[in-house]
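Researcher: Structure prediction, please.
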Amino acid sequence: MATSYIIGPFRLDANDAILFRNGTPVALGQRAIAVLRALLERAGNPVSKDALIKSAWAGLIVEESNLPVQIAALRRVFGDEPGGECWIATLPKYGYRFVGPLSLDTSSIAAAVPDSPATTEALSLPAQPAVAVLPFQNMSGDPEQEYFADGVVEEIITTLSRFRSLFVIARNSSFTYKGRSVDVKQIGRELGVSFVLEGSVRRSVDRVRITAQLIDASTGAHLWADRFDGALADVFDLQDQIARQVVGRLVPKLEHSAIERAKRKPTESLGAYEYYLRGTAAIYRFTIREANVEALQLFRQAIECDPEFASAYGMAAYCYVKDRTNRWPTDDLARDIAETDRLARNAVRLGRDDALALATSAGALAYVVRDLDTGAACIEQALEINPNLMWASYFAGFIKSWMGEPEAAVAHLMYAMRLSPVDPLMPLMQAATAHAHFFAGRYEEASSWANAALRGTPKLLPALRIGASADAFAGQIEQAQKTVTRLLQINPNERVSNLEAIYGPYRRPDDAWRYGEGLRRAGLPE
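Model: Predicted structure follows.
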C-alpha cells in the first residue's frame, strides 16, 4: 500500500517522494519534498525549524537559512492555486505549519488522484468533532416566516460554537446550502465536517415545532432525531434542548455545567427578537446600501423593544462599519462616529458574555471610532468566550493588522476561512489577508490574495486598493496601473489624499505611509 497526501489538485506520493499536480510530476528537489512531507505529517500543528532541517538534511549540519529556500519553492508551486501560497504558514521565531486542504489516501497510487471537484476540494478534519448546522426548512406555509426559521438555526449554531470541544462551521457557509438538495457526504467534504444537523421549523400563532436530526457526514447514517414542541415564548428553551442533545452525542464527557453556561437568551422580548432576526437577514445582503439602511432601522426597533439587547447594539454599530468600508455617503460624519461609539459601548457594557456583541463592537470601535486599544481588548474577550465565532476571528484579523501584528492577523483570518470555507464573505476575508501580508512586507503574497478576492467580487474596492499598492512595491508597475484604472472606473473620486478616512487606525505610522505610497506609485492621483 502507498501513502499519498491529497492537497487540492496536488498529490504527494510519500513512498516515492514525488509531487504530482493533476497526475503530472512537479519539478521539486528532494529537500523540498522532505520538508513538505514533514509538514503534512503534522498538518495543522506547528513544526519547528530544527525538526524540518533534520527531515531534509538528516545527519548533516546546515545553516538555518537553507530552510526558507525550500519553503519558498513549495509556496511557488502551490501559488498557482488561489490562496495556495499561504498553505504553509510562517510561525515567527519557531517554524512553519501546513494549513491548506489535505486528505490522506492509503490505497493504491492509481486511486489517489481525485476525479471529482468535490473530492479535490475536500478539507482535512479538525481534531475535535466538527459539525455543520444546515438551514432548517420553513414548514409554516408563510414565506415571511423564513427569517424565523433562519433565526432558530443561528441560535443553535451560536450555542454549539461556544464549546471549545466542538468545531462548528459558521452560519454564512452553512447557509450557502439553503434551498439546495445536496448529499450530506458532499457537504462533509466541502465543509470539512464529520456531522451535519438538519431539520425544520413550523410556527403557528403562538406555538412552534422544531424537528432536528443529526447525520454522520461520512456514511449518511442518521445518528439521532427528535421533535420539540412548545409555546412560541419558549423558543429559546427549545433551541437549547436541541443544542444540548447534539453536544451530548458528540462530546459524551462534556460537563452538564458547561452546557448550562452555554445557554444564552439573546433577549426576553420576542418582539425585539423578531426585529433582530429581520435585521440580520437584511445585513447579510452585504453590498447593498438600502439593505444596510433597512438593517440599521430594524436593529434600532429591536433596541426600542429591549434596551438591554446587547447583540442588537453590536449589529447596529456594525452597520456603520459597512458604511465606512463601502464609502457610502453620509450627511454628517461626526454624528455617525458619535452614534457608532454610543452603540458599540452599550453593546460592550450589556454583552460581557456575548461574543457577537463584543466582536462587532470591537470592529466598530477600532475602525470607525479609532479606539484601537478598546477594540483589541473586546476582540480578545470575544475570542475567549466563543473560539468558533467566525466574526471574532475575522475582526481579530483586521485589528491585529492595524496593531502591527501581521503574522497574528494571518493566523486569525486563516482560521476564520476554515470556520466558514464557502462563505459569501470570503472575498472580504481574502482582501483582509492581503492587507496582513502587505504589512508583513510580503507583497507578492498580498497581490495573490487580493486577486483571489477580486475573482469572487471584481469591484471590491479594498482588494483593488491593496492589490495595486502591493503590485507597485513588488515592482509590477504595469499591473498596478491597470488595477488603479479599474479602481477609478468604479469610483472616479478615488484619491490618495481622501483615503485617510478608510485607512485602518494603523499603530505603526510606516504602515499608513506604505499603503498610500504604493497607490501613488501605481498612479492614483494625489
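Model: The first strand starts at residue 4 and ends at 7.
Researcher: Thanks, that helps.
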